[in-house]
Amino acid sequence: MKFSENWLRSHVPTQATRDELSATLTAIGLEVEEVTALGDGLANVVVARIVECARHPEADRLQVCQVDAGRGELLQIVCGAPNARPGLIAPLAMVGANVGGIAIKAAKLRGVESNGMLCSAKELGVDADASGLLELPANAPVGTPVADYLQLPDASIEIKLTPNRADCFSVRGIAYDVAASLGSEVKPFDAAPVPAQSAVALAVELEAGARVPRFVGRVIEGVDATAPSPVWMAERLRRSGVRPISFLVDVTQYVMLELGQPMHAFDKDSLEGGIAVRPAHADETLALLDGRTVTLDDDFLVVSDDRGGRAARAVALGGIMGGLDTRVTDATRNVFLEAAHWIPSAIIGRSRKLGLHTDAGHRFERGVDPELPRIAVEYATRLIVEIAGGVPGPTTEAVLPEHLPRPTAILLRRARVARVLGVEIPDAEIERILRALGLQAAAVAEGWSVVAPSRRFDIAIEEDLIEELARIHGYDRVPTTLPGGATRIASPSETRVEPGEVRRQLAARDYFETVNFAFVDAKWLALWGAAEGAVPLANPLSAELAIMRTGLLPGVVAALQRNAARQAGRVRLFEIGNVFQAPAQAGEAPVESLRLAAAITGDAVAEQWGVPSRKADFHDLKGDLESVAALAGAVLEFRPSRAAHAHPGRSADVYRDGTCIGWIGQLHPRLQRALDLDADVFAFELELVPLSARALPRATELSRYPSVRRDLAFVVAEEVSWAALAATARDAAGPLLRDVQLFDRYVGQGVESGQKSLAMGLILQDNSRTLTEVEVAQVVAAVVAAIEAAHGAKIRG
User: Fold this and answer.
1) Which residues contact 150 (CB under 8 A, 6 or more apart)?
2) For 280, what's the count of Cα atoms within 13 Å in the CB-facing half-sphere?
3) Torsion angles phi and psi, residue 531, rounded to 5
4) Domains in the chain: ranges and CATH
């Protein structure tokens, strides 16, 4: 929000200097980003009129001007501005003035005497325009000091607003905060209605329900649209970052900046019938003021006329921009003013959907005072009638009171204020702050019953009021003290592996952690086949970040791809974060879960002289995952996967205790090509909570007796997995089995096609005695029988 310092001071009288005002704004949460001084040091610069112009005898680009400066005689000025001409009113720096660091003296330019300098806006320090002389209105009084005429010196102040302070998108809204902080009061605003002088009005119908609960309009006939904007209005607009266009347009901009209510002026003669506010029709088109024609759907709201009984025609895009066909021009004689209350949810995201950004849409997205439309229309009417003439009709208001917010009282307890802020604020000071901010406060036993004004819809609970007191009283006046009282020390649970342990384990295995946005592009998830159940954002930062992620792998692999594209040959990344799924029933919160994902590509180990170079494969990644599972004492089972992003035959679903908790494998070649990945990528993604759950650690006695190992080799079908064989062996061996290990896999000569040989080692041990050969043989026989029966295996001779 950018505004003129003098404009602000016209609403709140204060003796604070410019620096003090800027510091105050920042201190109360309205951070000042830039202060641009305008028109300092303009002594001896006056309004002057060029009477005659003649070509310089020695320079084609210079003119010798005779200038009336109101001193009774003409001054001769040599000027090179392209727009210098007889009759032009422009600023003149007299001899003795100092403009832009240049001391003005009587001088000869190419042999011709010059007694001063006609000035551009840049030379005066009021604008960046240096293309020619600053042209002042024809009625500007000659001889008047320019500083007085342009209300200088001034400053253009730009502040950065947080989304909750939509009320400060206006000079008057800022004035309340400044008045409260500097011990002043905002001047009363003259919002007296302008009496109707005719009966001409347009009927208004609201057909969008709660999305537009109030619409105010007024017809003004016989307006002189060619009337110039007054200097004070044009300068305030310019110093607020708005370029003056024409009077009727400038009035709506001026009211918006001063009060915060966007409004629009229609050429009344271009409208037919009454006015309706309704949802747009599917594929309805509208030509906007910026020249673009947009295609709408029923998610947009429009203002339409009746066109004499034919299909209603959209004449403005609700809350965003007016239509081209009904705009005001210099030929306009009859005006229809409108100001409406569009609720934020009806406007949020619509501008971005069309690639637009307007001041009106920016304000309505954050919220505008629902009581402002009538005040804004009355104020604009008064300005138009006073400056451009015209006959106003009655003010027409359509309202749905059941959809307008109702003021509610909030209990502010003095004990609560002291407890939250840690400082005692006197009752008189609290009441002064509340009153200066425009809040109504009635004393009660515990403190005050406070009703916030309609413009402060960010104040809803007691803590909001306490925040206002802290802002205005001064954060610097809140003492810095250490917190007191007992603190509870929470020890980590031994029944789960903390995410920090997982991070350290993967970092120890040469992984780097990556952190990605939780919101992603819908097209991105669709590429992975992971768009089902995605949760859309109500107010996305951009179209590319419009939904919440359903998985971590897309982000991790995207980070891997960026590294690979920058000649990183060996990349190993992981991420721990939340993913989101749409709820099973409407109205419920999205389902949120914590996951672990990792991806690798390139060499298995970093380049070195002691180990031959080889590419990482599925088993390297599987070993890393099992090292993480070992932290929780988990035994994982791997079954063939059919995931859309998985390489057939090189991927597996990961199970723990019979429950699928994730996926591991190589990315599908089709997906790798779509992601522009040249090398093979292996990855996994698992639910972290079931992976990290572990039994409560218990100390057990180490056996003093020796273990016994028996090796067995089975010939089984190729599709039988080692995990299935190991599970059968564990079940059959019973409590004497300490471990089962796969130490060989063989296919080739001596093994039939479609078969494979798997060799396992059984480690047997008892805590109370040495096992006998008979006991060992019984266990081995039980394992052999069980594997033969369950998997059709044969002992390899």
Assistant:
1) 39, 126, 231, 235
2) 22
3) -85, -15
4) 2-39+155-182 (3.30.56.10), 45-152 (2.40.50.140), 204-403 (3.50.40.10), 409-477 (3.30.56.10), 499-692 (3.30.930.10), 708-795 (3.30.70.380)
Rounded Cα distance between 437 and 425, Å, is 16
* Joined tokens for residue 418: 């002291």
Alpha-helical segments (H) within 66-182: 121-124, 146-149, 171-182
First to last CA, the chain: 86
Cα separation of 585 and 547, whole Å?
18
Q: Alpha-carbon distance 733 to 725, whole Å?
A: 12
User: Region 727-752: what's the mean pLDDT?
Assistant: 91
Q: If you average pLDDT over residues 403-418, what whole number do you get?
A: 93
d(CA 2, CA 17): 18
What sign does the CA torsion over 359, 364, 368, 374 have?
Answer: positive
What is the distance between the alpha carbons of residues 231 and 6, in angstroms, rounded to a whole number? 14
Residue 445 has pLDDT above 90, yes or no: yes
CA 315 to chain centre: 30
What counts of helices (H) and strands (E) characterise the chain?
22, 40
Which two tokens mark 6? 């003098």
How far apart (Å, rounded) are the C-alpha atoms in residues 646 and 672? 10
Do β-strands 681-687 and 591-601 pair in parallel, antiparallel, or remain unpaired? antiparallel
In the chain, pLDDT over 70 holds for what percent of residues?
99
* The pLDDT value given to residue 154: 93
- Nearest residue to 399 (alpha-carbon basis) of 217, 637, 580: 217
Q: What is the pLDDT of residues 242-277, one digit of tens each?
A: 999 999 999 999 999 999 999 999 999 999 989 999
Among candidates 197, 204, 333, which has minimal Cα distance to 278?
Answer: 204
Say what the pLDDT of residue 309 is: 46
Q: Which whole-number Å values give the CA distances from 456 to 94, 461, 756, in the listed order?
A: 50, 12, 76
> Could you identify the residue written with the tokens 């000091």?
145
Instruction: Provide the pairing of β-strand 74-79 with 59-68.
Output: antiparallel
| pLDDT on residue 129 | 81
Residue 626: what are its φ and ψ, rounded to 5°?
Answer: -70, -25
Q: Do residues 737 and 762 lie in contact, with contact meaning Cβ atoms separated by under 8 Å? A: yes
What's the pLDDT at 373? Answer: 96
User: Band of the pLDDT at 546, cuts 50, 70, 90?
Assistant: confident
From the CB of residue 132, how many other CB atoms can be counted at a distance below 10 Å?
A: 17
Per-position DSSP letters for 357-415, written without gaps between them:
--HHHHHHHH---TTHHHHHHHHHHHHHHHHH--EE---EEEE-GGGS----EEEEEHH
Q: What is the pLDDT of residues 570-601, one digit of tens each?
A: 999 999 999 999 887 777 888 999 999 999 99
Q: Cα-flanking dihedrals φ and ψ of residue 412, to 5°? A: -110, 110
Contact 723, 794 (CB under 8 A): no
503 by DSSP, 3-state: which? Answer: helix
Is it the case that residue 126 has pLDDT exceeding 90? no
Residue 24: which H helix or E strand, with range?
Answer: helix 18-27
Backbone angles phi, psi at 154, to 5 degrees: -150, 180
DSSP assignment, residue 28?
T
The C-alpha atoms of residue 335 and residue 391 are separated, in whole angstroms, by: 10
Q: pLDDT grade, residue 307 (50/70/90)?
A: low
DSSP code at position 131: S
What letter would DSSP give residue 767? Answer: S
Tokens 């350290």 sit on residue: 504
CB contact at 8 A, 793 and 714: yes
Q: CA–CA separation, 421 vs 430, rounded Å?
A: 13
